[in-house]
Amino acid sequence: MAQEDVFKKLVSHCKEYGFVFPSSDIYDGLGAVYDYGQMGVELKNNIKKYWWDSMVLLHENIVGIDSAIFMHPTIWKASGHVDAFNDPLIDNKDSKKRYRADVLIEDQLAKYDDKINKEVAKAAKRFGEAFDEAQFRSTNGRVLEHQAKRDALHERFAKALNDNNLEELRQIIVDEEIACPISGTKNWTEVRQFNLMFSTEMGSTADGSMKIYLRPETAQGIFVNYLNVKTGRMKVPFGIAQIGKAFRNEIVARQFIFRMREFEQMEMQFFVRPGSELEYFKKWKEIRLKWHKALGFGDDHYRFHDHDKLAHYANAATDIEFLMPFGFKEVEGIHSRTNFDLSQHEKFSGKSIKYFDPELNESYTPYVIETSIGVDRMFLSIMSAAYCEEQLENGESRVVLKLPAALAPVKLAVMPLVKKDGLPEKAREIIDNLKFHFHCQYDEKDSIGKRYRRQDAIGTPYCVTVDHQTLEDNCVTLRNRDTMEQERVAISELNNIIADRVSITSLLKTIQ
Ligand code: ATP
After folding, report:
1. What H or E segment, with its residue span, contains residue 112?
2. Are 387 and 13 in contact (CB under 8 A)?
3. How many whole angstroms separate alpha carbon 242 and alpha carbon 63?
4. Ligand 1 centroid – CA 248 distance (Å)
């Protein structure tokens, strides 16, 4: 099935099974804003817990905060967001559709990559085991031709971005003959900058109200609390973690919850000695990749993408990209932000933000490594990797979400075989004992087969069936979601067997 179709199915699956709904659905939705349903909120909370615990429990020198969304407007002046938090936008005059100029060019680069990969795949099929990919890539005429075009485009694009050259960005779009996917024409406007921050008013107008912004990132809430937290006996190097909502008036909001106008971030700022930042940048790249890989979707689903254009505050930056149904896409950014933010807040607030390092016997403004991941993008990457349509041996098919057990919304479904003979009461008794340890669901409606399918569709890793035999031997049938294998186990053993396999603690142990 084409990846696009898989994605469409995933979106409707998310709605049907209570994972994600369009916001304000009964009013036909609101552009790029979404709500999480009864299953989605559980998955989202589990993702957040996995991240939070991996930061705050596994690192003695990382603490958390929860700062307000409303902040003093000068913060956004100091951080550079008022003047420079812009995206270059371009309109197609025929379709009247608006695009990000940089994204159009990135898509064009991806097209060259696709062409190269297709040549490689064709050759690999033709030559079989004897295929030497490295040699093919460095000698095949067509591959070399595509690669040369790609490299030239890449170089020109990086330079245009670095120089903030909007005319050149437009010229690249023209020269590459990039057409609007809707109208199919190449009739483009100029490229303009567009600020992504939402603003509102605080206070009554009679007293003179103040224009404030909805934060476009959670990081600034950490920077402006650095002094407060440091006072609590934190010694450099140390980190501050935060999970919270962020808002961006995205020009092109598309691909479901990949790019939203209201979303949630999990950010950690790690404060280090000046000069040691690149060493910590490398360390945090490794730690974060390990966190992702522990989910078990396969190492080939991840790659680093180093930035061509460094933000004005950064001296190194990379993205962790995940293989989504629409290609490799950023889920997390890791940035070496120098001492830019703290220095700016020092300048704009007039307060000293220096750290006195007792070992060096000197004061400095710490440098910062940031890890920044979107909860919603992480959610989408997990759902898209977990969604499977399987053909079964008996000719039936099933849709199953192969979610990592520790993140699954429901861990165990308990089902009486029939709705009588004391089986429902026995099933309830099992849930009453286990509900303190993990999320259980009771289900007695329809045939067992249908009930299994329902649980597969929401990713429940285990199902327990209570039958007449259970009343005699206190044993139940335990069914595994992925293998569909069933085993007979004692009720008294259920907690031992399952708790460990579905706990976030077990997942954390694999990365510590
Ligand atoms: P992009 O290039 O995709 O716009 P970005 O580089 O601007 O992303 P950052 O500012 O580094 O993103 O934000 C860190 C993380 O926050 C991203 O890796 C992503 O997971 C998440 N994120 C950013 N913007 C959005 C959005 N509009 N919707 C959902 N998640 C987002």
Report:
1. helix 101-127
2. yes
3. 9
4. 9
Q: Give distance in angstroms: CA of 503 to centre of ligand 1.
A: 29
DSSP state at residue 92: B
pTM for this prediction: 0.89
What is the number of the ligand 1 atom nearest to the C-alpha of 253?
A: 27
Provide the CA 196 distance to its chain's centre, in angstroms. Answer: 20
Ligand 1 center to 268 CA (angstroms): 14
Q: Which residue CA neighbors atom 8 of ligand 1 most closely?
A: 330
Residue pair 434/494 in contact (Cβ under 8 Å)? The answer is yes
Gap between the Cα atoms of 86 and 212, Å rounded: 17
Nearest CA to ligand 1 atom 12: 333
Long-range contacts: 175-182, Cβ < 8 Å, 24+? 176/105, 176/108, 178/104, 178/105, 178/107, 178/108, 180/92, 180/94, 180/95, 180/97, 180/99, 182/92, 182/95, 182/97
Evaluate if residue 209 carries a pLDDT over 80: no
Ligand 1 pocket at CB < 6 A? 217, 248, 250, 259-260, 263, 265, 330-333, 372-374, 376-377
Pocket test for ligand 1, best of 222, 302, 310, 377 (most atoms within 8 A of CB): 377
Distance, CA of 248 to chain centre: 16
At residue 129, the 3 state secondary structure works out as helix
Question: What average pLDDT does this structure show over 472-484?
Answer: 97
> 3-class DSSP state for residue 218?
coil
Q: Is 395 left (phi over 0), alpha (psi -120 to 50) or beta?
A: left
Which residues are CB-neighbours of 262 under 8 A, at least 6 positions away? Answer: 33, 245, 246, 247
For all residues of the chain together, what is the average pLDDT?
A: 94
Give dist(CA 55, CA 61) in Å, integer: 9
Q: Are 508 and 58 in contact (CB under 8 A)?
A: yes
List pLDDT tens digits, range 211-228: 999 999 999 999 999 999
Distance 125 CA to ligand 1 centre (A): 37
